[in-house]
Amino acid sequence: MQLDQIKRREFITLLGGAMAWPVAARGQQRMRRIGVLMGLAEDDPEGRSRLAALARALQDLGWIEGHNIRTDYRWAAGDIERTHILATELVRSAPDAIVVNTPPGLSALQGKTHTIPIVFVQVLDASESAIVINPVRPEANVTGFTNFYEIRD
Fold first, then answer.
1. Which of 15, 36, 81, 146 is the most exposed place for a label (fewest CB within 10 A)?
2. How far apart are CA 49 and CA 77, in angstroms?
3. Is 127 helix (H, G, I), strand (E, B) or coil?
4. Predicted confidence pLDDT, tens digits, the chain (153 residues)
5. CA-to-CA distance for 89 and 106, rounded, in angstroms?
6. Count of CB atoms situated within 10 Å of the CB of 88
7. What pTM was computed for the model?
8. How far is residue 82's CA from residue 100's CA, in Å, rounded to a whole number?
9. How far apart are CA 18 and CA 40, in angstroms?
């Protein structure tokens, strides 16, 4: 099963930590790849904390780094031009999904792919800004939530 065939809600489930991916997807033993575009610097403690929470949530679901999942990180460090360059790199690497945590990163990714699922976190007012027209049932490859720490703290 290709990742683009898996439903958006299943990606939210994977990245949000609420439930596990379907058993069929787990049984394939194919290494899944997640690209992460962080707006912070690589040495930023807040960014590291957020990624640790994501890794814990994934591990709780049976997704273990280096075993059945690989995460590719890109750190923009608040640089908008660098954000666009890194977004291009991530899309070209063809991950199964991309996680992004800033509006500039989300905007850059939206312009570069309409097929790779993009899950945003901490992008405020996504439905008000027309990023997601219908948050209950998104119709494009972009979906997410506004407060990462509500997932698991």
1. 81
2. 15
3. coil
4. 444 444 555 555 555 543 344 444 445 568 999 999 999 999 999 999 989 988 998 899 898 999 999 999 999 999 999 999 999 999 999 999 999 988 889 889 988 998 998 888 866 554 445 555 555 555 667 766 545 444 444
5. 14
6. 15
7. 0.71
8. 14
9. 26
